[in-house]
Design brief:
heterodimer; A: alpha/beta; Rossmann fold; 2 domains; six-stranded mixed sheet; five-stranded parallel sheet; B: 77 residues; alpha+beta
Chain lengths: 393, 77
């Protein structure tokens, strides 16, 4: 790096720091004007990572509570898919999927406990980075394969784009575990016993696909201020500031803070591809239950690619009682009803190197994120001891 | 797997109806599907998500940001 880039970097850092400071000062001032605690949900796992990594909770007043949301596909993917894929892999049908999905725990009491364990026991499992890589891999071989397609609207176009163009070899089918994000937000806002939210930081990259306009229903129908935000610390601070400002003014609206990436109407071609290939049906979210019109499944037109039809898989199966592994609070964590530190298993039997529950598997999982930031955990501990002492008084 | 990464387009080509590109970030190069974006050119920045480019970084927005940065920089110095 030459000297001029060095100076430029230094300058950028300085500006970022100054801007962050001014945002934090504004947040503090706005929080003073609000009487009650303000609960803001950060939908995305990547937002939660930014918040935890940069210590944003320590910069803002205690009256502004940031709650991690359901934006982690690995965390909400039903265990029954894992169970069925484990069986297929042991029968010799090769399962292709992402690096984190292979560690996803199967249902309670199931052995092997994950696709990775199945692989160790002789099952055929292969890790890929993308669906395109899966297609390339399948083209060079002749054995039967299934791609385990999990994710939200951000990942759906990757399968839709290739399927639409008929580029998928005959020996590869796809198990779609796709879930749509607006229905789960609606679920959060309407379900009895859900956290009362005062603001939502909407997912940045999902919005790049479906458009910022997809979130208009939140302020309109539920009166909750919403900001579509990017993933830098400054983006998140700006989102918090804008939500508080709306709260103070008593006017809920929708703001697109991430306009450098997110268009109001999203990516037209990606939306068309999703619409062309998938149909929407009610779908099960792990430990949470059925959410109306929240699942993406192959339309009849593309049934020859559908692993659910090809192998007669049950989606959903009759028995859903084993979706939550005993003691795990992941399904409460994704809805903001529990914190990872409330779980008796957290950092004991459930750790990043040996995840017991789904929220510890992926880097978007709140448990995994918190686990990898020990200094933040110590602060949480001090806070909870402080709260307990206050209760004693 | 649910992680969007801003990457720079290094090369673009077609394979039948698919539009593919080699993208680069921090010295890492990989091949991705860019079929769902219009007007992709070498040097553009895109958000890559699980092997597909889902959005192009808005150049005018980026320019605005640089302008803003320069303004603040001149105030600071």
């Amino acid at each position: 790096m030459n000297r001029s880039t060095d100076t430029y970097r230094g300058l950028i850092d300085k500006i970022t720091k100054e801007y962050s400071k001014s945002l934090v000062a504004k947040i503090r001032k706005l929080a003073e004007q609000l009487k009650n605690v303000v609960k803001i949900m950060d939908f995305c796992g990547t937002h939660e990572w930014t918040i935890t990594h940069y210590g944003i909770r320590t910069l803002i007043p205690d009256e502004v509570e940031l709650i991690a949301g359901p934006g982690c596909p690995v965390c909400v993917t039903p265990a029954y898919y894992v169970d069925q894929l484990i069986s297929l892999s042991l029968e010799g049908i090769e399962v292709l999927t992402y690096g984190d999905a292979v560690r996803l725990p199967a249902s309670a009491g199931h052995t092997p406990r994950s696709l990775l364990e199945a692989k160790a026991g002789g099952g055929r499992v292969h890790i890929v980075y993308s669906f395109m890589d899966a297609v390339k891999y399948a083209k060079t071989r002749s054995n039967e394969m299934v791609f385990f397609a999990i994710g939200f609207e951000t990942t759906m176009p990757s399968v839709a784009s290739v399927i639409m163009k008929g580029k998928v070899p005959k020996n590869l089918s796809v198990l779609t575990a796709y879930r749509y994000t607006p229905p789960i937000v609606k679920h959060l806002l309407t379900e009895v016993g859900a956290v009362q939210l005062d603001g939502i930081i909407a997912p940045g990259h999902v919005s790049a696909v479906i458009g910022a306009s997809s979130w208009e229903f939140i302020p309109k129908e539920y009166g909750v201020p919403t900001v579509v935000a990017g993933f830098e610390a400054i983006d998140v601070l700006a989102a918090i500031e804008k939500i508080l400002e709306m709260k103070v003014r008593g006017k809920a609206g929708l703001i697109n803070e991430y306009s450098r990436v997110v268009q109001w109407d999203g990516n037209k071609l990606a939306k068309q591809a999703i619409f062309e290939v998938f149909e929407v049906r009610d779908a099960y979210w792990r430990g949470i239950g059925f959410v109306r019109e929240s699942g993406g499944f192959f339309k009849d037109k593309f049934k020859e690619h559908d692993a659910i039809r090809e192998y007669g898989l049950k989606d959903p199966p009759a028995d859903l009682s084993k979706e939550v592994v005993p003691g795990c609070k992941c399904h409460e964590v994704v809805l903001g009803l529990s914190k990872p530190t409330h779980c008796p298993l957290f950092m004991k039997v459930c750790r990043p190197d040996s995840p017991y529950g789904p929220c510890m598997v992926s880097v978007e999982g709140t448990c995994r994120i918190w686990a990898e930031h020990p200094e933040f955990l110590r602060l949480e501990e001090i806070k909870s001891v402080g709260a307990a002492l206050k209760d004693l008084e | 797997m649910c992680l969007g990464i801003p990457m720079r387009i290094a090369r673009v080509w077609s394979e039948g109806e698919l539009k593919l590109a080699e993208v680069e970030a921090g010295g890492v190069r990989t091949e991705v599907d860019v079929s769902l974006l219009e007007d992709i050119r070498v040097g553009d920045y895109v958000i890559v998500h699980a092997g597909i480019a889902i959005s192009k970084l808005d150049e005018s927005e980026a320019r605005e940001l640089i302008k803003l940065f320069n303004e603040i920089a001149s105030e600071l110095s």
